[in-house]
Amino acid sequence: MTIAKPGPQASPLSQPFWDGCRERRLRLQYCPDSGQWVFYPRALDPRSWSTHLEWRDASGRGTVASFIVVHKPGHPAFQEDTPYVVALIDLAEGPRMLSNVVGCAPEQVRIGQAVRVHWVEQGGEVLPKFVPEEFAHKEKD
After folding, report:
1. How far apart are CA 118 and CA 99, in angstroms?
2. 65/89 Cα distance (integer angstroms)
């Protein structure tokens, strides 16, 4: 018996992010008042308190800030994927995103490693995961 993996639950605030993912575009909020990128989706910029936020395409590039290797997942549907990497990615635009690093063995992931977005279809959704730049030539977006 296969157990379905739980997926993201979009809200009206996060819907543009998930719509961008379906188009394989990493869309983040940008505040022209502060000149800063914002992630996770919010109603206002946490730096300037401005509600003037625009959705813009991000580069999809970043670096691994921290990571863990999961051997015992919190949900049984992810057991078949173990071991897998959950990482904090410092995006080139500034925000930090929680995601997975894929396309290499967990022991090949390093803090400070350059990564780029890699789109993965899961349960009818398209999720942004990241692949190390040195392994990116083996992956296709």
Report:
1. 11
2. 6
User: Tokens at residue 73, please?
Assistant: 């997942």
Radius of gyration of the chain (CA): 16
Rounded to whole angstroms, the Cα distance separating 89 from 139 reads 19
Q: Is the pTM of this model over 0.90?
A: yes
Q: What is the pLDDT of residues 41-97, one digit of tens each?
A: 999 999 999 999 999 999 999 999 999 999 999 999 999 999 999 999 999 999 999
Is residue 38 within 8 A of residue 32, CB to CB? The reply is no
Cβ atoms within 10 Å, residue 82: 12
Domains annotated on the chain, with CATH: 11-58 (no CATH), 59-141 (2.40.50)
CB of 126 closer than 8 Å to CB of 120: yes
